[in-house]
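Recall that a protein's primary structure is simply its ordered list of amino acids. Everything else, from secondary elements to tertiary packing, is in principle encoded there. The following example makes that idea concrete.
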Amino acid sequence: MLVGVCDFPGSYAFPPAGYGGIERWLWAVAVGARAAGADVHLLGPGWLTDLEHDWVRKPVRLEDIITGSLASRDLRSAGYDLLVGGHEYPSLPAWTRTCNELNCDVATFQHSPVFRHADTAFDGKRSRLYCYSPEMIERYAEHQPIPELAVHLGLDEDEPLAVAGSDLVWLGRIDEEKAPHIAVRAAQMLGR
């Protein structure tokens, strides 16, 4: 099986040096697919170049590919079975056009609770949306989402050990959507 994992044009560095939520998810998919025996290509220019000796990198974005171009023919001749992209990709017309030319399955996850997908983005079979919470599954019910556990560990990342201590840590960006005000209030209630 040949899996293409498409980078996401965000402002975060790509794994394994640094990443945000979308980048972490995509990296975990790449590592997991490889561990399951799939051949994996990292598509897009965002992946770090120091991965080249271990990974096949193709620094093209599907949304920039012109039908009939050399890049288009190169991607089509690779014979991808599955493309995995960031949550918005299956609703972007230019990305979807190229993906349809490749005639492969598509999978993504729902990352944003406010993003609205195109009505035809998912069919539940060849194009699949994975959701990791009951709220997301309910919100995107018309897209036939598949419930799945959240991916949170990447390459060479172990779950941190719990240790006794008195420190508090905030994980997440400081943004109303991530609700840091609730973390602050919880710390206040603890007298911290």
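Residues 63 and 95 are 4 Å apart (CA to CA). Residues 21-35 form the longest helix (15 residues).
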